[in-house]
């Protein structure tokens, strides 16, 4: 279905605060994953992409997710997710099993060792999140911020 055309409205230039916000959001989107990844790699020898994979699997029913769904929630391509899962599988943290509903698909399953590794790494991730995010938001209305970011993301 084609998108209904909106009547053209004149573009309103950004004011100084809007421009600053746009630029800082762009920086945060690049810098934040890098610094948290550096913390996790240094402290836990567990890159952020691997930590997030373990985390999402730990929250899934039966600690199982279809590879394509896991890739989507981790913001990775399917081939990128396959590389992450292969590394974790070699460490015994994840297993891959055929999808029962679709024999062509694969599921990633978090093992008990994977859950234990996640629990071991969690304090480092929490400390990094506090240091790089929450310590800078003291006094901010986090509920409103979450709602605004959700609207932006959708």
Keywords:
154 residues, three-stranded antiparallel beta sheet, 6 helices, mainly alpha
Describe the protein.
Helix content is 61%, strand content 8%. The protein has 154 residues and is mainly alpha-helical. It has one domain (17-153): Arc Repressor Mutant, subunit A. A three-stranded antiparallel β-sheet has the order 1-3-2. The radius of gyration is 19 Å and the shape is globular. The mean pLDDT is 95.
Set down the secondary structure blueprint.
Blueprint: H1 16-44, H2 48-59, E1 64-66, H3 67-73, H4 78-90, E2 94-98, E3 106-110, H5 112-132, H6 142-153
Antiparallel strand pairs: 1-3, 2-3
Helix pairs in contact: 1-5, 2-5, 3-4
Brief write-up:
The protein has a three-stranded antiparallel β-sheet. The mean pLDDT is 95. The two termini are 19 Å apart.
Order of helices and strands: HHEHHEEHH
Instruction: Give the overall average pLDDT.
Output: 95
Kindly, what is the distance between the CA atoms of the first and last residues, rounded to a whole number of angstroms? 19 Å
Summarize the biggest pleated sheet. Answer: 3 strands, antiparallel
- Say which CATH homologous superfamily is assigned: Winged helix-like DNA-binding domain superfamily/Winged helix DNA-binding domain
Strand content: 5-15%
- Spatial sequence of strands, sheet with the most strands: 1-3-2
Helix content: 55-70%
* Rg over alpha carbons: 19 Å
Number of domains: 1
CATH class: Mainly Alpha
CATH topology heading: Arc Repressor Mutant, subunit A
Shape: globular
Query: What is the CATH architecture term?
Result: Orthogonal Bundle
Give the assembly state of these chains.
single chain
Which segments are poorly predicted (pLDDT under 50) over 5 or more consecutive residues?
none
Tally of DSSP β-strands: 3
Number of helices: 6
| Category by helix and strand content | mainly alpha
